[in-house]
Amino acid sequence: MKKNRFIPVLLFALVFCLFAGCSDKKTSGEFKVGVVAVTSGELFRKGNYIVTAARYAAEKVNKSGGLELDGEPHNVKLFPADSNGDPEMAAKVTLRLIQKEKVSAIVGAAKSNVALAVAKVCEEHKVPFITPVAGTNKLTSFKYSFRVSYTNTVQGEALARFAKNDLGHKDVGILFDSSSPYSAELARFFKEDYLKGGGKVVSFQGYVARDREYSSQLKKIIEAGAEILFLPNNTKKVQLQVAQARKLGFKGILMGSDSWDSIELERNPLFKNSYYTDHWVPSLPIKGAAEFERDYKKANGVDPSELEALTYDAVNSLFNAAKIAGTDNPVAIHDALVDMPPFHGVTGTFDYN
């Protein structure tokens, strides 16, 4: 990695997917899938990534003849629902998708607190839910919830190892959202692993979601002598935090997590000399990835982001489970997700359990 570059620290998660097989039969039914994603508000970009990738995967399957269920080909029909990035809203739209639209499964929910809200509803109604990216460890307690991405435990350990081995054991200050399961959890895991490895966390500062001013916490971090500022927060908050940190005189290294949106941050000069984690980047030597990148860009006019690649794997893993189950019954699909062998997706190889 070169200094003075905005560079992702890539983690290879255990992930899988399957492209649906071809069929010349005419479809006779529908396989209904809910897509919960924030498509309004400040985080709309992530929601659009999820919806676009899910639609691309569905269209690809439908063009090949659909999914073979109950002896007949079925077209995939998506039901996108805007969570507005709010757990309460996410729970409401999830319940509507299950009760009114009769979906067989739900995909989406990038934010951990939103994913947990969706997971609770899906658990109650025994409908499988797959999130492409929510990292909170709390999700593992739900039987009907699955994830393509790595957990916060894995990410925290990798970040701590990177800070130690690649950044030279510099003193770290951490600013995190104490009201966010994702941010607070990842901050804690990173701190624990960094201290175990002999590193030093000189300041550990929290804030709450509604905050827009961070000068008090940042001053404490700077005065403590932090050489690295770790910000496991969403892109909009990070942009404010970094602007305020630079204004207060912080000249050290910025380090982030998979919540950073590289498309927005790479063009911001304040993020010079920064590092962040990511699940996937283009041109990885993974079987099928090059074809996905080429075809996705051809269909959508832009290169896929990591969230689009992860969503593509999540949706295709669902399609594969439905094909194995041979039905649109949610419980049967859940069982197929658990029992099916590892599969190879465009972000790597993974196995649900």
Can you tell me about this structure?
Helix content is 41%, strand content 20%. The strands form three sheets. Strands 1-12-11-10-8-9 form a six-stranded parallel beta sheet, with helices on both faces. A six-stranded mixed beta sheet has the order 3-4-2-5-6-7, sandwiched between helices. The chain has a two-stranded antiparallel sheet with strand order 13-14. The N terminus is likely disordered. The longest helix has 20 residues. By secondary structure, the chain is α/β, with parallel strands linked by helices. It is built from eleven helices and 14 strands.
What does this entry show, briefly?
The chain is of the alpha/beta class.
Based on Cα principal axes, name the global outline: elongated
Beta-strand content bin: 15-25%
The largest pleated sheet is described as: 6 strands, parallel
Low-confidence blocks of residues: 1-7, 10-25
- Give the fraction of residues assigned to helices: 40-55%
- The number of helical segments is 11
Structural classification: alpha/beta
Average pLDDT for all residues: 90
Counting DSSP E segments of at least 2 residues, the number of strands comes to 14
What order do the SSEs take from the amino end to the carboxyl end, as H and E?
EEHEEHEHEEHEHEHEHEHEHHHEE
**Strand arrangement across the biggest beta sheet:** 1-12-11-10-8-9
Radius of gyration: 21 Å
N-to-C terminal Cα separation, in Å? 34 Å
